[in-house]
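Your task
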Amino acid sequence: MSNETKRDVFNDALAYAPVGREYDPVNDDEAGDLRSCLSARYAAALPDDMPVIPEAVGCMITKMKPICNSILASQYRDYGKDHRWIIDHYDTFARAWLLGVWRVEETGEIVKLEAEK
């Protein structure tokens, strides 16, 4: 898994922007390949502002998401202090749940759930 973010791809695209001359991506064959390459990288890149959540909450998402498509308070009530974190940070929790990608608060590691088949 690449840890490339959308901002990384954007910055690479800026490096290709010509200086001091007209740029014609429609009639420039090399620009077309570059455009499709950068577009594919951008589509696959991680969000720039991915949620940062505690490791224990991430483990809970990793366990729960594959078996249910929503999470109810009763399903994570037994997680103690992690339950309190989820309530206090429900917007961050929801983004991590929906995106299926987050940064672990304690380690900085990026976790990305594999897409279901």
